[in-house]
Amino acid sequence: MRVRPAAVAGRFYPGDPDALAALVDALVANVPPPRRRVRPVAVVAPHAGYRFSGPVAATAHAQLAPWCGEVAGVVVLGPAHFTSLRGMAIPSVGAFATPLGPVPVDADARAVAAGLSAVVVDDEPHAGEHSIETQLPFLIRVLGPGVPVLPVVVGDTPPSAVATLLSGLLGAASTIAVVSTDLSHYLNRAQARERDTHTAAAVVDRNGDALRPGDACGFHPLRGLLRHAADRDLVVEQLQLATSADTGGDPRRVVGYGAFLCQEATGESTG
Hints:
The chain is α/β, with parallel strands linked by helices. The chain has helices spanning 17-29, 50-61, 107-114, 130-133, 136-143, 159-169, 189-204, 219-232, and strands spanning 3-4, 40-45, 73-79, 88-90, 95-96, 103-104, 119-121, 149-154, 175-180, 185-187, 235-243, 254-263.
């Protein structure tokens, strides 16, 4: 079986398995338990180095923890940082390597996705891409090591095409999505807070048309999720907003991070 090697282990997150597991577990343990009893349809999480965005990413992934053992597959959509890509790319490999062990690629979901006109099977956009890889250790620790994942690198793609992909893959209640994106880039702390607050309001309103490419590096997958949420009348909830300055980054040049939860409207609150 061909395996895509880890590209950013030891840089974005610890390369040592024990250190990585301990860090992810500690980050997730710091998140209050989810307030709703309904299974998430999707979460939005950042993908920077864990030192900076780890607490916000953990806030998103912790929403999945109550469903360990029930989630049968995850679709992870991230932007193409290093490859010029129109449409979406899924990998041909059988697994993605991580320090915590390999994550199997969901062959059934890949077959469904490959039948869409906006999707190509291409390993190149995945080769050095960190936006999907950084989500995998969280998924392993929260859902277990055997849950298959379909990695989808999203380039310049209409929201309707991404929504079509999600509709085809999330029809089963046991499959959820993770959209990987950071928010504003390299503004000062005050400017970032203002811009990210505007972005978060658009996300909660499911208004992808209000977003601009500079609002989020995962602009295309995020707008696709919002189109899917609007089409399905799903609720989007803001969980957390922060910047790299909150975890020791330079306040003059920050990156914004947001965690969001997408779920059915009929959720019963537990408090």
